[in-house]
Write a structure and sequence with these properties.
There is one protein chain. The radius of gyration is 12 Å and the shape is globular. It is an all-beta fold and 111 residues long. The chain is built from no helices and eleven strands. The chain starts with a strand and ends in a 12-residue tail after the last strand. 39% of the residues are buried.
């Protein structure tokens, strides 16, 4: 599959996630520490979209129960989640943000 353009750089607000589809997988693109990150858009605790949560301190929070995930690693940083979510390579180019959902950075298989 390789990298696919998912949005323009300006489409991603610094305090919110943006839900996008790459192939047949829903991904959340977020900004943290002036970088772009892509994670599977599904909380590992409650299977709800992470894109509906807030982004702060390089973490994204699940809106339902408050689980938090590190944007860089996908690892949970706040309960009740205990399992990580898949993270994907991101490439920012002059014409937009690209995500490669065919491979994960952290070895977690998308569920």
């Amino acid at each position: 599959m390789g990298f696919e353009r998912v949005c323009a750089v300006d489409d991603v607000a610094t305090d919110e996630g943006l839900a996008v589809v790459v192939g047949d997988l829903e991904v959340v693109v977020a900004r943290g520490d002036d970088e772009f990150f892509a994670l599977q858009n599904l909380c590992s605790h409650a299977a709800v979209p992470l894109s509906e949560g807030e982004v702060e301190d390089c973490q994204i929070e699940c809106w339902l129960h408050g689980s938090r995930f590190d944007l860089r690693t996908g690892k949970p940083t706040g309960f009740p989640a205990t399992e990580p979510v898949a993270t994907f390579p991101v490439d920012v180019r002059p014409d937009g943000v690209y995500v490669d959902a065919s491979r994960t950075l952290n070895g977690v298989r998308p569920g």
